[in-house]
Design a protein that fits this description.
The structure holds two protein chains of two kinds. Chain A is built from four helices and no strands. Chain A is an all-alpha fold. Chain A has a single domain, classed as Non-ribosomal Peptide Synthetase Peptidyl Carrier Protein, Chain A (Orthogonal Bundle), CATH 1.10.1200.10. In chain A, helix 1 packs antiparallel against helix 2 and helix 1 packs antiparallel against helix 4. Chain B is α/β, with parallel strands linked by helices. Among the domains of chain B are: 108 residues, Roll (Luciferase, domain 3); 97 residues, GMP Synthetase, Chain A, domain 3 (2-Layer Sandwich), CATH 3.30.300. In chain B, helix 2 packs across helix 3, helix 9 crosses helix 10 and helix 10 crosses helix 11. The N and C termini of chain B lie far apart (65 Å). The chains are: A mainly alpha, B alpha/beta. The interface between A and B is medium-sized, with 22 and 26 residues.
């Protein structure tokens, strides 16, 4: 069964969080405030999403509004996929 | 002319009382408010028993209260110590104990991270907000306490320019951070040079990107205040997103930007910069690491109206040399110089035979003048090693600082940076002693050997890679070790890649062969 978009996002976030010694991340926890996503991490996250979800993310879309929490990223990615008329399955 | 830093604020208050001094996280303070609150804070500190020379720690995310805290501590005659709000509790506790911090200005959540037993020198805390529900800590005072103190004047203080103003902790090669002591004179020497070089006026909008424990922030804060300008602190979450950051710079009307090159590289690559968008920007300063030439050229092309300066100098001297980018020759330049000495500072390069080198020759850079630190807190040995007698000064005794950087002067008198003598690297502008990361890894009981190397990276200067041989093969994972490091060193020092192996190659003298590690990796079996 295909993983949901949120699972994919959560997988990446938890790897980064673990490295930084953070054990739990809620859907609405700020990823930047806890340092889970910093300026290096944001581009790794973007590449990860592009490769594993199949969306193209433009530089102007890499903003706080779209990436500040797991819930926000999920909303952003789903909107992109819906816009492209694709179904929400992952590779 | 000011001889102690707080005079910069008081003078600007007299001329620009109602102008905005500082903006951060949606709040702002005028010069009047900053002057009055810092007076109140100074009186509060005195009431708590803070004497001249006592250390006061700042431990909270950057906010307008940061400037109140800095000036309030100075007005009480204290020495402030900015603590990185994102560092692990163990490292912060070490720093607090190392310089015997008496009072902490902090947020409730940060205070909770500290075990009182680990920081016995701390006698009280001032919270940057009101206390929420929950058992109040003894000797923790809410911000509103300040309202009960005089706002119109600072307490009596006999201070001189050579008194300490603040201590900045940097990475230490033996595994422990070291506190660089900076006097009022050190900071003011730098600020005076900035004022005459950059013509900061009350109309300027200065960004503050650097954290307050990083000396780039000394430019932002004290130059801004001296000129009666407005300082805008870059919000943490905006800093992470280049497109948001570019918009923020435009919206705040930033005129002067100062940061490490890494931040500018992100802006160049992903920030959608344009001259129209950032038309108010007039000067960009960068320091802390080498700016990759190709990105600098792109930046110069994207923003043709902005003056670009390369600034160089260790924390121990703040900026000691500078170079103004000459756009007419930039396209053909392979390497940017670190330039020539700032006003009121002298630098020279000395070779292994104690000779001042000539054009094209290589030597270690030494700095003398009133910008040079009096030394490292509580570490006379290290101080004696780095702040040495100026052997070229024959008529009287004075100290000069040895930077550990190898440089070479050209025929114009501009110096070029060639490399480090030792094991210190820069990653994203952060100064990192690889030895400190190795010490953190070695402190894990399962680790037998560890070596950390820097892998050069175009965008951020260096990435950190560790090689670890555990006592029991297969007993540790990279993630285990990264988590172990996370509790001991700042996030930017956690190795991105950890190679677990059976043994590390050695040189003929038995030391770990880091050069070979960098080239060929670890050996399969010891």
């Amino acid at each position: 069964m295909a993983e949901s978009i949120k699972d994919v996002i959560r997988q990446f976030v938890m790897e980064s969080a673990q490295i930084k010694g953070i054990k739990e991340v809620g859907d609405n926890d700020s990823l930047t405030e806890s340092g889970i996503v910093d300026s290096l991490g944001i581009f790794r996250l973007v590449s990860f999403l592009e490769e594993n979800v199949g969306v193209h993310i433009g530089d102007e879309e890499i903003t706080q509004d779209n990436f500040s929490t797991i819930a926000e990223i999920e909303r952003f990615v789903n909107a992109k996929l819906a816009g492209k008329g694709e179904t929400t399955t992952t590779r | 002319m000011a001889y102690i830093l707080q005079q910069l604020l008081t003078e600007s208050f007299k001329r620009y009382a109602e102008r905005t001094a500082i903006c951060a996280r949606g709040k702002s303070l005028t010069y009047r408010e900053l002057e009055e609150r810092s007076n109140q804070l100074a009186h509060f500190l005195r009431q708590r028993g803070v004497k001249k020379g006592d250390r006061v720690g700042l431990f909270f995310p950057k906010a307008v209260e940061s400037l109140v805290a800095m000036f309030g501590a100075l007005k009480a005659g204290a020495v402030y110590v900015p603590l990185d709000p994102n560092q692990p509790a163990e490292r912060i506790s070490y720093i607090i104990s190392n310089c015997g911090i008496k009072g902490l200005i902090t947020s409730e959540d940060r205070l909770r991270l500290l075990d009182p037993a680990a920081v016995p020198s701390v006698e009280f805390a001032l919270l940057t907000h009101e206390q929420t529900n929950g058992s109040p800590r003894p000797n923790a005072f809410p911000w509103s306490t300040l309202a009960g103190f005089p706002a119109g004047h600072a307490p009596e203080l006999q201070a001189t320019t050579t008194d300490l103003a603040y201590i900045l902790y940097t990475s230490g090669s033996t595994g422990r951070p070291k506190g660089v002591m900076l006097s009022h004179q050190n900071a003011l020497t730098f600020v005076e040079w900035c004022a005459e070089t950059f013509n900061v006026t009350c109309e300027d909008h200065l960004s503050n990107h650097a954290p307050l424990h990083f000396d780039l922030s000394v430019f932002d804060v004290y130059n801004g205040i001296k000129a009666g300008a407005t300082v805008y602190m870059v919000p943490d979450d905006v800093a992470v997103f280049p497109a948001s950051l570019a918009n923020w710079i435009q919206q705040q009307g930033i005129t002067i930007w100062y940061s490490v090159p890494s931040a500018l590289v992100y802006l160049v690559l992903h920030g959608k910069l344009s001259a129209e968008k950032l038309s108010k920007l007039r000067i960009i300063l960068f320091a802390g690491e080498v700016f990759p030439q190709k990105y600098l050229k792109q930046l110069a092309e994207l923003l043709p109206h902005v003056e670009l300066y390369n600034l160089y100098g260790p924390t121990e001297t703040n900026v000691c040399t500078y170079y103004r980018v000459d756009r007419s020759i930039l396209p053909g330049m392979e390497k940017l110089p670190i330039g020539r000495a700032c006003t009121n500072t002298e630098v020279f390069a000395v070779d292994d035979h104690d000779r001042i080198v000539g054009v094209g020759e290589v030597g270690e850079l030494f700095v003398r003048g009133p910008s040079v630190t009096p030394g490292y807190w509580g570490d006379p040995e290290k101080t004696a090693k780095m702040c040495v007698r100026n052997r070229f000064q024959v008529h009287f005794e004075e100290k000069m600082y040895r930077t550990g950087d190898l440089v070479s002067p050209d025929e114009n008198g501009d110096y070029y940076f060639l490399g480090r003598r030792d094991n210190q690297i820069k990653s994203r502008g952060y100064r990192i002693e690889l030895g400190e990361i190795e010490a953190a890894l070695l402190s894990h009981t399962g680790v037998c050997e560890a070596a950390v190397i820097a892998v050069p990276d175009e965008e951020i200067g260096n990435r950190i890679k560790a090689f670890v041989a555990p006592h029991q093969p297969g007993s540790l994972t990279a993630v285990d070790l990264q988590q172990h490091c996370a509790a001991r060193v700042p996030k930017y020092m956690i190795p991105e890649v950890i190679d677990l192996c059976e043994g590390l190659p050695k040189t003929s003298t038995g030391k770990i062969d880091r050069v070979r590690l960098a080239q060929t990796g670890p050996v399969a079996a010891r």
